[in-house]
Design brief:
The chain is of the alpha/beta class. It contains 13 helices and four strands.
Length: 297
């Protein structure tokens, strides 16, 4: 990933109240505040791009973040060149998931961060397979330590509820027009829902080649356990779109082949990219209408 990072700019977006050491969010009943739904979170990501004057992006998300990125690509296809969705859930919460999430939500609200919530979040991130490798144990311990010391449990409860009440995106997944890289570990807690989403995409996408699926055996968290495999697939995904063409493919080796007269910088641009015209919406950067942007207040 080092070569990709050297040629790209990453925009990390934190969900309201989920950043480290975040203060309590306003009380919904008394302060006229409502935590955004998953649908609204996805749709309003465009405001971040407008504020930063970024015309188009590659979306990259994991878990609930992947669900949000998928919704963003559905709502604003003209702003997305491609998306990578890791452990993305496309369906609504099932009965058992809803019951567990309600229990976690209650405990986070009344007790704060607690072993039940910690174990449930670890299950979501690392799967149910009890691995004995020291590296995995260390990752789980570090994750729990971060939950205890860095995350506001009351704010996390709001996010859990929003995820629990998510709407179905499978039925309208065909609205995505860009290439998609789906990623899952076979031991992930939501592996079956990723497979459901993949089948829906292959059924509803006009261009069936726009769907790639990376599924790793004996792995729950691909980001943590198979980062080299994810990096390789992500590179091929970007190069299929026409980005970072100057990076040689690992399996092929050697120097990248560039068109005559091309520079390394030009080779890293998407094939379909062209600067927005002066009279286009992307060039004019109209005032954002979402409630969260400073310009709209």
């Amino acid at each position: 990933m080092a070569e990709i990072k050297a040629r790209t700019a990453w925009i990390h977006v934190s969900i309201p109240g989920q950043e480290d050491q975040a203060p309590d969010l306003p009380v919904e009943k008394h302060e006229n505040y409502k935590f955004p739904s998953m649908k609204l979170l996805g749709e309003e990501l465009v405001c971040v791009l407008d504020q930063l004057k970024v015309a188009q992006v590659i979306g990259f998300g994991e878990g609930a973040g992947a669900n949000i990125i998928a919704r963003f690509a559905m709502a604003h296809p003209e702003r997305v060149l491609g998306i990578t969705l890791i452990h993305c859930t496309g369906t609504t919460a099932g009965f058992m998931e809803s019951m567990k999430d309600k229990l976690i939500s209650w405990k986070l609200d009344h007790i704060g961060m607690n072993p039940t919530a910690e174990n449930y979040l670890v299950l979501h991130r690392f799967g149910s397979f009890d691995k004995c490798e020291d590296s995995i144990k260390q990752m789980k311990t570090a994750f729990k330590d971060h939950l205890r010391s860095g995350i506001n449990p009351k704010n996390l409860r709001r996010f859990v509820i929003a995820f629990m009440e998510r709407s179905n995106i499978v039925d309208s997944i065909g609205d995505i027009q860009c290439p998609v890289l789906l990623v899952s570990g076979k031991l992930a807690s939501h592996a079956h829902t990723v497979n459901t989403l993949e089948m829906a995409m292959r059924k509803k996408f006009e261009n069936k080649k726009n769907v790639e699926f990376l599924e790793c055996d004996d792995v729950a968290n691909v980001l943590e356990e198979k980062p080299e495999k994810l990096a390789e697939s992500f590179q091929y995904h970007l190069q299929g779109i026409g980005l970072v063409s100057s990076i040689p493919m690992k399996k092929m080796g050697g120097r990248p082949r560039l068109p005559s007269g091309s520079s390394m910088e030009a080779a890293d641009l998407p094939k379909s990219f062209s600067p927005p015209k002066a009279n286009s919406p992307l060039a004019q950067w109209p005032k954002c209408k979402c409630h969260s942007c400073p310009e709209s207040l």
